Amino acid sequence: MSSTQKLRQLLERPEIMVIPGIYDCLGAKLAEQLGFEVIATSGFGIAASTLGLPDYGLLTATEMFYSVGRIAQSVNIPLIADLDTGYGNALNVMRTVKDAVQLGLAGILLEDQEWPKKCGHFEGKRVISMAEHAVKIRAAVQARGESGLAIIARTDARAPLGLDEAIHRGRAYIEAGADILFVEAPQSLEELKAIVAAFPDVPLVANMIEGGKTPQLSASELQQLGFKIVFFPVTTLLAATQVMTACLRQLKAEGTTANLKDLVTFKDFQELIGVSKYLQIEQQFKE
After folding, report:
1. Count of C-beta atoms within a 10 Å radius of residue 115
2. Nearest residue to 69 via CA among 21, 96, 44, 104
3. Torsion sign over Cα 86, 113, 42, 226
4. Are strands 79-82 and 39-41 parallel, antiparallel or unpaired?
5. Which end of the chain is more exposed for a tag (fewer CB within 10 A), N or C?
6. Helix ranges, the chain (H)
C-alpha cells in the first residue's frame, strides 16, 4: 500500500490524527518506533536545524526537498511535508507537487503567504490574493495526477485580514480541490469553534505551537470540537533544544559526561538506527 493510500485510510477513521512535527531522520524513526502512524515535517524545525536560521522563507525548495526526501525514505509511515508557498506561482507549484510525488510523500501543505513567508505564529505576515492561491491549489490538484497526494490548503489570513476573511478563503481553497483545510493561528476557543462551524464536512487541521497564538488544547478536546488533524510542529525541536542545552552546560562546567542522567544507552541507540541489521548484511558480503 502506498503512503498516500495509508494516509487516506487514516483520514477515514473517526479518531483525530495526532501528528508530530519532525525535522530530521532520527526524529522520524523515533516517532515510527513509538507508534505514530503519520509524521509531518516542520519548516520551522528544518530551517533551525539545517541552517540555524528562523522560519523566514530562507530555505530554498532544493534544500527543503533534500531534507524531506531523506526523512521520507527513513521510515515506512506516511509523511506530510510543509512546502511553504509552493515556491512561486502556479507553474512552480506544479513542479513542486511533481517532486513531492516522486519522493513518495503522502501529503503536502501549501500556504497563501507572500514569499518570503514567515512562521505562522510570527508577526508581520502578508498574504497573496485569494484568487491567486486558489489557482495554485488547482494547479497542485492537476499536477498530482492519479497519485492520491493529499493537498492541505493553509491560509494565514487570520492575522492580517481577520477570521472572516480566513474562512472565506478556506471555502475558495476547498472549492479549488484541496482535500484538507488548515486555518493557521486562530486566537481563541471561540475562533476554533467558528472554523469548525463553517466547515462541517471538511477535514480540518489544528496547529498546537507551545507559546504560540492558538490556545493549547489536547487532541481529545480538538476532536470534540470537530478537528480531524492536530499538528505539534515544534514540540520535538523545543524538547531537543532543552535537553542539548542542559547536556552542553554540564559538560562545559564539569568537563565530563559521567554524571549525565537520562541518556539513551549507546546500545539502544545503535538498535534504533539499525546497526545490527547492517552488521548482518556486511557479513553476507565478506570476501
Report:
1. 15
2. 104
3. negative
4. parallel
5. C
6. 3-12, 25-33, 43-46, 61-73, 90-102, 130-144, 158-161, 163-175, 189-198, 219-225, 235-254, 266-272, 275-284
Per residue, what are the HEC states of 139-198? HHHHHHCCCCCEEEEEECCHHHHCHHHHHHHHHHHHHCCCCEEEECCCCCHHHHHHHHHH
Burial (Cβ within 10 Å: 0-12, 13-18, ≥19) of residue 8: middle
Grid cell at residue 106: 503522502
What is the CB neighbour count within 10 angstroms for residue 105?
27
- The mean per-residue pLDDT over the stretch 145-159 comes to 97
d(CA 43, CA 54): 10
Grid coordinates of 19:
501528528
103-116 pLDDT, tens digit per residue, is 999 999 999 998 88
